[in-house]
């Protein structure tokens, strides 16, 4: 159970890192600006708009934490190291 709680915490930290305006929603521009950080986490995105639209499952034009976390789980995105962001890295599993 604790590992699931920690995973949610990690995803929350990742989302908050990308959500520059603190709106609890990711806009396309914030997502594009986060591409270098996502690459550090092991996700190499070549077409940010396409991936953003895939994550935005309800088509609202913004990505919620729920949408982001569902996408991250399907990509097996994992943050390794310090969840406060000092030694973050990630792996995309198959």
Automatic annotation (TrEMBL):
InterPro entries: Calflagin-bd, EF-hand-dom_pair, EF_Hand_1_Ca_BS, EF_hand_dom. This is EF-hand domain pair/EF hand/EF-hand domain containing protein. CDD domains: EFh. One of its GO terms (molecular function) is calcium ion binding. It comes from the Eukaryota. Pfam families: EF-hand_7. The keyword Mitochondrion does not apply. SUPFAM superfamilies: EF-hand (SSF47473). Keywords: Calcium, Metal-binding, Repeat. It comes from Trypanosoma brucei equiperdum. Residues 6-41, 43-78 form the EF-hand domain.
């Amino acid at each position: 159970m604790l590992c699931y709680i920690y995973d949610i915490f990690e995803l929350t930290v990742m989302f908050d890192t990308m959500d520059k305006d603190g709106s609890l929603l990711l806009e396309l521009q914030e997502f594009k600006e986060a591409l270098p950080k996502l690459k550090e986490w092991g996700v190499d995105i070549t077409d940010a708009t396409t991936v953003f639209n895939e994550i935005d499952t309800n088509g609202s034009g913004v990505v919620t934490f729920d949408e982001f976390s569902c996408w991250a789980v399907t990509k097996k995105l994992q943050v390794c190291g310090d969840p406060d962001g000092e030694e973050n890295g990630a792996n995309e599993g198959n």
